[in-house]
Amino acid sequence: MKIIPLTALALVAATALALPAGAATEATVMVGGQQMFPSKDIIDNAVNSADHTTLVAAVQAAGLVDALKGKGPFTVFAPTNEAFAALPAGTVDTLLKPENKATLTKVLTYHVVAGDYTGAKLRSLIQKNHGSTTLKTLAGGELTIMMNGPDNIAVRDEKGGIADVTISDVHQSNGVIQVIDKVLMPGA
């Protein structure tokens, strides 16, 4: 049996046929069981994550979809469904009521920072500032970014709650998502 080598062109064609559209050119990260594509915006990716259905519902209820589809860049510290479920009983239901839209909007925009803050950039700022750095949120509050152990980035809110970044650097066309394990709460 004679083996016939594939030419470079045939190899590229075979690879392109075997991969889903966009997969050959985009490095993706898995979040909530789905690929997050850097060519899609924050909302278009988030709606596919099974781990972020509560966040997506909250963003829709607050009327923030168009804002997070905007040009950016934004860094979103995105709490998982488990993070929302860990809030005191009834908190999410109360926040999702139309009469609480202003409070919901404040909580959600407290998770968003203008700029593209990758894990490397956050680590650099933490080191430069001797152990922590603060970022101004779109809600007008501050988040303190620090290390939690040698490798993990953590975020402290104005009430002292700490969330760990569990999936870092989920690149989007209009910014980056840092998945976190707690809901961040703005100060009074």
Characterization of the model:
The protein is of the alpha+beta class and 188 residues long. The chain has one domain (26-180): Roll (FAS1 domain), CATH 2.30.180. The protein has helices spanning 8-18, 42-46, 53-62, 65-68, 81-85, 91-95, 101-109, 119-128, and strands spanning 29-31, 34-36, 74-79, 112-114, 132-136, 142-147, 153-156, 162-172, 175-180. Helix 3 (53-62) crosses helix 7 (101-109). The longest helix is centred in the N-terminal third of the chain and has 11 residues, at 8-18. It starts with 7 loop residues before the first helix and ends in an 8-residue tail after the last strand. The model is unreliable at 1-24 (pLDDT under 50).
List keywords for this structure.
alpha+beta, seven-stranded mixed sheet, two-stranded antiparallel sheet, 188 residues, FAS1 domain, globular
Tally of extended strands?
9
CATH superfamily: FAS1 domain
CATH architecture: Roll
Main β-sheet: number of strands, strand sense, barrel status?
7 strands, mixed
- State the name of the first-level CATH class: Mainly Beta
Low-confidence stretches: 1-24
Structural class call reads: alpha+beta
Please indicate the percent range of residues in DSSP E strands (runs of 2 or more): 25-35%
- First and last CA, distance: 77 Å
Spatial strand arrangement across the major sheet = 4-3-9-8-7-6-5
Series of H and E elements: HEEHHHEHHHEHEEEEE
- Give the CA-based shape: globular
Helix count, DSSP H or I runs of 4 or more residues: 8
* Arithmetic mean pLDDT: 85
Radius of gyration, in Å, reads: 19 Å
CATH topology: FAS1 domain
Helix content: 25-40%
Number of domains: 1
